[in-house]
Amino acid sequence: MKIKLFLISVGLGLQSLVAQEVLSPDQAVSLALEHNYGIKIANNTVEVAKNNTSILNSGYLPTVTGNAGASINKQNSEGQLANGETRVANGAETRNYNASINLNYTLFDGLGREYNYKQLKETQQLTELQARETIENTVLQLFTVYYSVAELNENTQAILQTLEISKERLVRAQYQFDYGQDTKLGVLNAEVDVNNDSINLMNSKQQLQNFKRDLNLVLGNSLTDDFNVDTTIDFNELIDKATLFDRAKQYNASLMQINKNIEINSLIVKLEKSAYLPIIGLTGSYGWNETSNNSPLAFALQNTSTGVSGGVSLTWNLFDGGTTITRVKNAKLNLETQNIQKEEYLVTLERDFNNAWDDYQNKLNIFKLQEANIKTSQNNFDRTEEKFKLGQLNSIEFRQAQINLLNAELTRNQAKYAAKIAELELLKISGEILNISF
Fold it and tell me: Which of 346, 349, 408, 343 is nearest to 380 (CA)?
């Protein structure tokens, strides 16, 4: 009865796995792009860079300020007129009101404004490249976890099949014992194997759930229900090695960032040199002023004035103690450092590309061999099972063939997904990971 109940529960568990929604690779990428926290932060950083390149942050627009003020003054005063008469003003009140609008505009600043604006545009593009690299890393991380789920899912199915075979063997051993065709030892051995397979199944299911949670985390916790993943693997048709390496030198995200930093540092050198040139500015102002005075000593009781003023200014820093010279020298050294870093990275890129290419080819060949090994292991198990049922082999030999088949399936699964991850790592180095269909 226990055996029957176990087989029923296994069947129900298998049905629940089949009923779960299958998360395709394309769906996983879409969810990651929309919900992954790292990608969200990278997108916000790009928006900040775009805001910095706005005309409102370029320095090309004038500044306009408004000023206004009011004051009240009370004082006692005494004065003598020209005819000798003396007048006293106690608590005489003077009121003053003023307002003005001021405009300042830089006509020329030694081209510093132009180079600064170009630098901001290049910085925006650098930020976009950084965001792209974040997306590439996230996609690679996504599929590392995604295919771990797929591998564990296939492993769980393989262990489940092994357990079902072990349960059938236990039933057979129990019948043989009941009819005196076998000893109690055969039943005990079968029970031990069932227990071991059950433990393996429990551990595999637990690992599977853990990796599903890891996958959901990469997806920004966007999945609320349990799910399965697609275990079908299609390897991309890669172009030849030399052409793919040429693309790596063009589209590798890290290398493109180094190139962009070189462009930015070239602009910084020009920006620092602009301090050698003068600054020409334009100023303008419109003002209103009103003063009222009730003192008997005042010449006028109220005075109101309005006016417009404008001017041009020139500032030329002829010598600043060597600060500008130092900044220009340091900017040139930073540019030279960037070029050296590019040379170093090109060497590193070639090494990493060759390693990734060889690793992918090696793992792909291993997977093909494991595929062939599965057929051999399956044929061996089928023949062993047939002989075992005929009584020509003992349970130990049958169990060994069963374990060999399971190990071959687990090894094949590992090789399959390892080859796929190696392919994605190669495509990431080549800058092509976002251009393929998943």
Answer: 408
